[in-house]
Amino acid sequence: MDLEDPYSVSVYRNEVVVRAEVHDPDGVNVGRVVRSFQRDHDGNLFVEHASLRLSERVQGQGFAREWNGHLMEWYRHSGVERIEVHAASTVGGYAWARDGFDWAPNTEHRANGVLDRLRGELRKVDVDIELARRSAEGDGILDLDRLRERYGTTDPDQVLREAYRQRDAGQEILGRARTHSFGSTRYPTPFEISQAGWGDHHQGRDASWIGKRALLGADWKGVKQVSDTGPLHPRSAHTESLPRVPDLSSIHSLLTGEGHPPVTAARVPDAEFHGYGRDVPEPELVRHLGEDALRQVVNRLPDGSTLRGVRLELTTVPADALPDGAVARSVPVDVDGQDLPHGTVPREGGGWRVELSDRATDVNVARAVAHEAAELEAIGQRAAGGLDPFAPDALTPGTLADGTTLSPHDLGRLNEAEVL
Asked: Can you give the pTM of this predicted structure?
């Protein structure tokens, strides 16, 4: 950012706009980025990713993902509640969906526009299927360049197999959109659309599949949650005069007027299962304890466990990086170790990264790892059985409805008893 440029930073009431240039390793200007930092009427801090434009010669090299990932950590420690985007550029419609942005509230009309584009792509796939079928029967001439661009092959039989697979993926998305209301847990997310028709053979920036084609150039508005509580996170767990466990319940009621949120283990009065059990961070010790606990859990898994062969990593993070004073959480990652959006079941080759509070006590480390392992096992079982892998919790106040089953999170809580 050129601090001598009077237009690099603009300050308004409840908003600061920052404009910066992107340079390659040789110092050559290859792009421009604009971010708008704002505070809404409720006092929540949010960031609008206004634009990121890169020269074509540097696109597809991972800069946007690394840059946004770096900023995400800064946002989290700065108390940003959410990120908002307006995906309207040629690449942005797909890129923001791939990065896990969900539909912004009250934008069902824009979601319908994306689904209409997917329907248009399905019609094109139907044309490709008919042409490939006729060519396989010796009746017709294929547009080889078109097929190579869309399916990576010109062999009619291979085109048919790939086109049918992609068509099924697109129809599954549209079927869920028809039967589930906008905003519900089963309504297709932009990320799920971006992955529709994707396969392991799709490599490189020029790879093409039905979901990606539907989103390239699409116009929609997205939002991504950064923290549950807005501008409440301290910059460091070492900050003087902090309570041992952040009293998020009382602050939540002041901000929202909704009273106390659901009670979690960290909020139970005088509870010890929280991420602030040590007076000072001890990341190496906690990581060693966590790896040992995870190794024991994996060794006890039955042969048919859905966690067998799944990539499992463990690391420590600052206590204030975890929501609600939690001891641990599990983050889905892809085959390259890149974070996937919350609520995603990793594909083959991907897995999970268990993040432990660097101030968790010995017993809480073992307890949290047992919880996470059982929850991930249940998620895998439900996904393999075609069920919603992230079913709502049943172990909540009130009477259970007939047919209610325990959620993966419920099963994780029950597995803590193995440690206790």
From this structure: 0.56
